[in-house]
Design a protein that fits this description.
By secondary structure, the protein is mainly α. It has eleven helices and no strands. Helix content is 79%, strand content 0%.
Length: 217
């Protein structure tokens, strides 16, 4: 099968889902665009009012800051988890993947309640610190930026782990063996082999987490 015929077959296979997606998503977007320009009057006053609003600029800057910080934290933690999973036997990796995916299977109300118990002023962390220091500790760990980052990172880490793990597992083991035979140390192998070859998964995970962060931020 030639490349052109393969692309044609893929287009035919994907066309029903694409048409359904366009039919569902496009009409609401067109309606929002139509109303944003004041209908048939075709006025851009609404866009001008939004762009000149100090509140909008502050909200946008805050959203981009939280989204970027959450994505970076999720990327660091997710890459470490994915690197550990890639070095495990298949059976153990499957079990550990269940633990990684638990945030997706847990109700948001249950997670919010759990984080309140752990991070609240009378939560587990503050109680442990109070017991260690023998004084009352009430660190503000919820209802602020720290609590927001903890909750978002908990949800976003699996979105990093999945694509990065796929990239790591796709690396041929012979490359590692060749690098070791040539005298490369583990740190050099990581920087010259593991990290560069996992960049597609890292980029995909970072992009998906950043886009998701733009909503609740």
């Amino acid at each position: 099968m030639t490349r052109i015929s393969s692309l044609r077959a893929q287009a035919i296979f994907m066309s029903p889902a694409t048409m359904i997606g366009v039919a569902i998503v496009l009409p609401p977007l067109l309606y929002v665009l139509f109303t944003s320009v004041n209908g048939s009057a075709l006025s851009l006053d609404a866009f001008g009012a939004v762009l000149t609003s100090a509140l909008f600029r502050q909200t946008l800057a805050r959203t981009l800051y939280v989204a970027g910080l959450s994505s970076i934290l999720s990327l660091l933690l997710g890459f470490i988890v994915a690197l550990h999973l890639a070095r495990q036997p298949p059976r153990r990796r499957a079990f550990l993947m269940v633990l990684v995916l638990l945030p997706f299977w847990t109700s948001i109300l249950v997670k919010a309640f759990a984080f309140t118990i752990i991070l609240g002023r009378n939560g587990i962390i503050n109680n442990v610190l109070s017991w260690i220091l023998q004084t009352k500790i009430e660190l503000p760990l919820v209802l602020n930026l720290f609590g927001l980052l903890v909750g978002m990172t908990n949800f976003l880490v699996p979105l990093i782990v999945l694509p990065v793990l796929a990239s790591l597992l796709a690396i041929d083991g012979a490359i590692y063996r060749a690098a070791a035979i040539m005298g490369a140390k583990p740190a050099r192998i990581f920087w010259t082999v593991t990290l560069p070859m996992s960049l597609p998964g890292l980029f995909a995970g970072l992009l998906s987490t950043f886009v998701m962060c733009l909503g609740p931020s």
